[in-house]
Amino acid sequence: MRIMKIFKNFFVDVMYGNKFTSAVRIVLGGMLLFAGGIKIYDPESFGGLIARYDILPRILAGYAAVLIPVLEMVIGLLLVVGYKVRASSLMAVFLMALFIVSIGLNLMRGRSFDCGCFDVRRIGLDINETISAWLVVRDSVFLVAFALLFSAERHLFSLENYCEKMRLKNPEQSKYR
Questions:
Q1: Residue 130 phi, psi (nearest 5)
Q2: What are the domain boundaries of the chain?
Q3: Span 42-92, pLDDT tens digits
Q4: Burial of 59 from C-beta contacts in 10 A (0-12 / 13-18 / 19+)
Q5: 8-state DSSP, 82
Q6: Contact 113/123 with Cβ under 8 angstroms?
Q7: What's the pTM?
């Protein structure tokens, strides 16, 4: 019974926004910054990877190869600094859903190739990132974590939280009077 109460209190704290949700926000934001930063250096190669998924017309793969890393980096930066957390986490949910569907469709087609998720070979790491059910599970966990960030009422250690504290300390200077 006591364990259930502890779990319930932790869950309520997480949904309100606590240090755990802040850590998740910063780690996921850093992950997106890293993933986008690695891909942005070689959009031609990344465009080839996108074309292998055979979802977009080939002519659009190059545009997606530029748009996706930039989007990942913008979302990641917003999450790390804690600005527009709800909007950026919602965009990340949609991005993860897109990745899950793309990988899942190619798994159903029986295809196997490098997913292009983090492209860690560029930094000398040899980690297998071949599309698989594991990547669908991993991205699903990320999707749930981004949904958690979207649901949280507040975000500690964030620019939003700092601005709210300043607004409450100086209500006469607030634009919301």
A1: -70, 140
A2: 9-173
A3: 899 899 999 999 999 999 999 999 999 999 999 999 999 999 999 999 999
A4: exposed
A5: T
A6: no
A7: 0.86
